[in-house]
Amino acid sequence: MACQKLDRSAAEKLISETDNFLFDCDGVLWDGHGAIPGSVDTIAHLKRLGKKVYYITNNSSSSREDYKKKCLKYGFDAEVGDIVCTAYVGALYLHNNNFKGKVYVVGNPAMGKELDKFNIKHIGIGPDEMVNDDDNINYSARVEEWLKTQLDPEVNCVFVGFDPYINYIKILKAASYLQRENCLFLGTNEDTHLPTQGSDIVIPGTGTMVKAVSLPSRKKPLIIGKPETTMFDTLSLANNLDPARSMMVGDRMNTDIYMAKRCNLKSLLVLTGVCTEQDLPLNGVQPKSFEAGEELPDFYADKLGIFGEFIASL
Amino acid sequence: MACQKLDRSAAEDLISEMDNFLFDCDGVLWNGRGAIPGSVDTIAHLKRLGKKVYYITNNSSSSREDYQKKCLKYGFDAEVVDIVCTAYVGALYLHNNNFKGKVYVVGNPAMGKELDKFNIRHIGIGPDEMVNDDDNMNNSSRVEEWLKTQLDPEVNCVFVGFDAHINYIKILKAASYLQRENCLFLGTNEDGHYPTQDSDIVIPGTGTMVEAVSLPSRKKPLIIGKPETTMFDTLSQANNLDPARSMMVGDRMNTDIYMAKRCNLKSLLVLTGVCTEQDLPLNGVQPKSFEAGEELPDFYADKLGIFGEFIAGL
């Protein structure tokens, strides 16, 4: 039976049946206020019990090295080899597929860093203002200017990730490059927003940039991040993971848990991030909330620290 | 039988059966290079034959007065009341629904002008840069800055149209306002891109702005433009049009023809804009092209001027 509230007995069983624990980070290990109480202890217990711990995040604004620093800052012990993040896995994907050419990046410096590591040429990161833009320019005059946009003839891949400088001209360029035959289209992830506790501000996620490029280009991207399986496959290949003895812990049903299901991993949903109790089935009926995917976790808990408490004395 | 190539006999039947002809403009009457050959003559013949001519466009960057000037510029005789465009119909919708409050507009000055005419207060039009933005800011600092964004407490409607200044902070504000209970969400139209003959540049359409706001807000907008029926309903009410004696002429199956079907109008698809021969059914089989909707027109012609040639001698 799916979606059981995690209890001591289930926690002890998981310890005996699972070697590898994969953690989404935002909303599971930390949030805007810092490390979530109990998460550091839980990871420490798992390591003490000889388990392998991995960090698997859709965040595209950090390289693996950046992410390791972030983990250490919050008190989580991590090596670069324990981390998969979308900037890295996207660049790795291109490398593994013998990509030759140039990438137009609608993204951020971390994506550039990861592409540089594989000597993949790229342009586009950072602000891009329209020349000759004037508030009094009418629409037709603007269209004339846009039609004069210079495209780089070498670009044969568009890679979209989190871009705080997203704007019209970048979307125009990306959509234009994507009309080229054989131009690849990669997106790091499609998360709609980042959870913000107690704030009335919505922080739009990378899904915004990916959709903004996909629609006018009329192309669909290959998505690197959860819920696609690429990130688990990458980690699994590098670390020889047995899915039957691996568990994913996340806060989003439509990314973390969905990927876990597709990879045949066990799954634990914690309610300290995007999903709340309202997203769980009530009396066997799945709610029609935006976040509730069709994918139910094996277990859920109010926070990761509950799992830690159950295994503290093992 | 649907999707017949317009011939002289069908054209003559249409003249005897139709009183009202509604024209999409871009790709039907004019394109980037000017009036499409034959279109001015066709409109002139229809008026000579005592028919009513209306202009019905999803373009949100023009007020009705702007659009009248545009029609006259290309040689098409138009009064303001013959025109429905989405900036006007959106403002009218709010007026007809007794809107009280303030609108956050992700759009353009024409939308502002139409809202002003109904004394509807609005903010947001024009550029909006993030204060304290610095290329070297890391993502966490940016998130901290974004979380300090000041929202206007009076806003209870978000109205999205074509916005050349679309950027992250505007998307953030719109998505944040939309979390308010009872905040309305209007979008002018969802056109993904605008046709550009012989250019390798894609001009992203308003659909880009609407999706960019809809995704992080997790709300769906009420769409004013085609293929929704609001624009025909507005025109019909103001001019007492009988759908059974009205025909829509457009270049996009998934907007113009789809709206025509929903309103029970006859329809003619011309191939001088977005749709091409590749989007038409071949041997009764509908192609799976992006533009091909499930809605087939009654008739199609290479250009509107063909219709004009058939009726010139009447």
From TrEMBL, chain A:
Pfam families: Hydrolase_6 (PF13344), Hydrolase_like (PF13242). The active site is at D24 (nucleophile), D26 (proton donor). InterPro entries: HAD-like_sf, HAD-SF_hydro_IIA, HAD_sf, PGP_euk. GO terms for molecular function: metal ion binding; phosphatase activity. Keywords: Hydrolase, Magnesium, Metal-binding. Divalent metal ions. Mg(2+) is the most effective. GO terms for cellular component: cytoplasm. Mg(2+) binds at D24, D26, D251. It comes from the Eukaryota. Substrate binds at K226. Its cofactor is Mg(2+). Gene3D superfamilies: HAD superfamily/HAD-like (3.40.50.1000). NCBIfam families: HAD-SF-IIA, PGP_euk. Belongs to the HAD-like hydrolase superfamily. This is 4-nitrophenylphosphatase. It comes from Patella caerulea.
From TrEMBL, chain B:
Substrate binds at K226. The active site is at D24 (nucleophile), D26 (proton donor). The keyword Hydrolase applies. GO terms for cellular component: cytoplasm. Keywords: Hydrolase, Magnesium, Metal-binding. PANTHER family: 4-NITROPHENYLPHOSPHATASE-RELATED, FI11325P-RELATED. Belongs to the HAD-like hydrolase superfamily. This is 4-nitrophenylphosphatase. It comes from Patella caerulea. The lineage of its organism: Eukaryota, Metazoa, Spiralia, Lophotrochozoa, Mollusca.
